[in-house]
Write a structure and sequence with these properties.
UPP_synth-like_CS; magnesium ion binding; UPP_synth-like; 8 helices; Undecaprenyl pyrophosphate synthetase; binds farnesyl diphosphate
Length: 253
């Protein structure tokens, strides 16, 4: 069901500029569970549930793209039981919410080394991508088995191979070369995020979208991911509006 924003949020949004693309490092599931004396899996479940909530809120606000960091290439270092639980949770999430996602018109996409995931999860990813392909509201991009250094290194290899076949590529001017190189990334047809939010108070990018976040505004909140909701999203957008985006140039007067 579509989310009903509060009157206060609706009135605040009238005077705010919305970021077109928001990226989120969903951190703090473990600490949330610990605070409640529950196992870590409880925190991840609450985190997955909150993702549906945040999607509905951002869709209601009119945000076009939301990219979330669900599982990093470094997360394989966690105990196998936690990794297995996280993968099961991602599958369950789609089984449970795919109808609602379709009803909302949300398009799902995935970035990361999907081919290295368990086969059943790969199937879920394929199905979710295909089923929602023609939806035209919020695009939810899930970074799954994602690492930015890996993405960039792989793009560089593919680009090098193409340069051998088309040596003229090496003559591209810097800006064109940049655009050409970006076309080898998993995010090739997505705009760069305008705002990146990290929950649970950390101030790190943790190998998330290192190329794409070059000019994103950074926002960190102490709020733990399972508790990050409408009020917190609005605060992030207010903070975003207080920034002067210059992209290396001068502020427009
Ligand atoms: C970081 O919290 C969170 C993760 C590594 C997993 C994020 C996954 C979800 C929110 C749920 C599943 C996603 C989908 C797409 C359904 P942490 O465990 O590092 O927390 P801590 O730092 O407090 O221990």
């Amino acid at each position: 069901m579509a989310y009903q924003l509060s009157d206060q949020t609706l009135s605040d949004l009238k005077i705010l500029k919305l970021p077109k693309h928001v990226a989120i490092i969903m951190d703090g599931n473990g600490r949330y569970a610990e605070r409640l004396n529950k196992p870590r899996s409880f925190g991840h479940k609450a985190g997955a549930l909150n993702l549906t909530n945040v999607c509905r809120i951002m869709d209601a606000m009119g945000i076009s793209y939301l990219t979330v960091y669900a599982f990093s290439t470094e997360n394989w270092q966690r105990p196998l039981s936690e990794v297995t639980q996280l993968f099961a949770l991602v599958s369950q999430f789609f089984d449970q919410y795919i109808d609602e996602i379709c009803e909302l018109g949300v398009r799902l996409r995935f970035i990361g080394e999907i081919g290295e995931l368990p086969l059943s999860l790969q199937k879920t990813v394929k199905r979710a991508t295909e089923l929602t392909h023609d939806n035209n509201k919020l695009q939810l991009i899930i970074a799954l088995n994602y690492g930015a250094r890996q993405e960039i290194a792989k793009a560089a290899c593919k680009f090098a191979l193409d340069c051998e076949l088309q040596p003229d590529l090496l003559k591209l001017k810097a800006k064109d070369l940049e655009a050409k190189f970006a076309s080898y990334l998993w995010t090739c047809d997505l705009p760069d995020p305008d705002l990146v939010i990290r929950t649970a108070g950390e101030l790190r990018l943790s190998n998330f979208l290192l190329w794409q976040l070059a000019y994103a505004e950074l926002y960190s909140t102490d709020c733990l991911w399972p508790e990050f909701g409408e009020k917190e999203i609005l605060s992030a957008i207010v903070a975003y509006n207080q920034r002067t985006r210059k992209f290396g140039g001068l502020a427009k007067s």
